[in-house]
Amino acid sequence: MSELETQWLHLALRGDAQGFSNLIEIYKGPVYNLCYRMLGDPIEAEDAAQETFLRAYKGLKRYDKQRPFSTWLLSIAAHYCIDQTRRRKFGMVSMDENPLIDPADLTPGPEASTVMSEEQRRIQALLTKLNTQDRAAVIMRYWYELSYEEIADSLSLTVSAVKSRLHRARNELAGMWMEQNIPAAPVERNYHGNAQSPAF
After folding, report:
1. Are 142 and 135 in contact (CB under 8 A)?
2. How confident is the model at residue 90, as a pLDDT?
């Protein structure tokens, strides 16, 4: 965290709205991208990013200064997205009005523009097939390079549980990726010209 960011955080912790708005400008890209990868929908991701910053603002007094602010913020986003994914099934989604944050301020910038590339779309489609906590662990580890300990703290899991989830998720993703990318095996013909199954 830069010295300037630290100053803004200190201002925000003292109730300075401008200090918190400056932090939003820094972290809106990473927060939006995490929400997009968790939810798979740009509009829902914008709403989730807005809700994340609202919750962070309301909960600043509970922020542990020994913990990286970015990790704390991303954990709020991940938990919210996990809850939203679960609530989708029951039509329980609701959003609070936020007088501090203008949704237009959360429009994804250049960092988010690559999310919609073809390969990214395919990866996103695979991510949405994972268990929600597994998905969060994968995103935090491989997109945001959080440590096992940070992920465990963020998702209220043990370190061994995080490692287990990541191992399982990697295997699932690798299997799905291979299924998508291996073309149908060509039919081979023997010297008599008859079709035969390919050898494995």
Report:
1. no
2. 52
